[in-house]
Fold:
Amino acid sequence: MTDANWSVPETEVLAGVREVLESDLRGVLATIIDVEGSAYRRPGAKMVIPEDGDGVGHITAGCLEDEIQKIAGDVLADGRPRVETYDLRPDGEVVESDDPDEVGARAYYDPATDAFDRGDRFPAGLVDRIDEATRELTEQGRADSFEVDGLTVFVDGVAAPDDLVLVGTGHDVGPMAELGAQADFRVTVIGFRGANAEADRFPDADDVRSTSPAQIREAFEFDEDTYVVVATHNFIDDRLAVDELLRTAVPYVGLMGPHERFEEMAEEFEREGRTFSEAELDRLYTPVGLDLGGGSPYEIALSIVGEVMAVANDRQPRHLREREGRIHDRVELSSNR
Structure:
């Protein structure tokens, strides 16, 4: 497989799955269902292998992708799913291959209808045992495996990606859109009054829209899964946009510019009788971005997208060498499995 196919965001892997399902081709979906110890990818990581080409996506740092492509050929040949267990320590190898007859009982959960579509081989009584965990993992877009009545159950929750909305159409927006898309955000660029809001200027954005600062809330459904960066570099437009955005449920509003710029805005807001609650100010990040020390467009974009990721993942940015325990948090479920 190529480096380009290996490094795609998870949304592109799912798009590859859809392409196979909607075509006359067959394909194989490889998914990590469990990990013991340290690993590059976590449960839920996917790789799709269409029968006519290279795989898309990755489930390791490159250790198993070629092996998985070979196994995919066998799966396509006999049409039977399988579970492979690997030991990736220096002297490790394939240590177990489950009997295909014991693999493959499936049920699908649709959060829109809150209904399970149970396959013929899926035990009827098992649905009630896993329904709460399934709902919670689906809402989180997380995956986990656990034991129920001697059976290993893997729940792969697939949720829509978070939204990254970039308000502004300057040259600095392009790198933010590119890095945001690579970080698996659904990127929307919003320009004001039609100025430079052409979609071809932002090929990495999923959508490009035009509105006015006072009507920005009507231009997009801003919710708790939306992260916004305001970068029009126009004082009045930025001020109006920030005012409108802080009236929504978004957890993050980043504003380009120094502290003094927002202090000037705050003075104008105060003269107009607009005051901000602590909850609103907690969601405002200005100057926007992490202090990485860079000054080029991509360095600035990296600091901004990195900060958005930290907020979205509820992390305090720091060196990983200072973090105790695992790099990746375990999946925590409130439901009793």
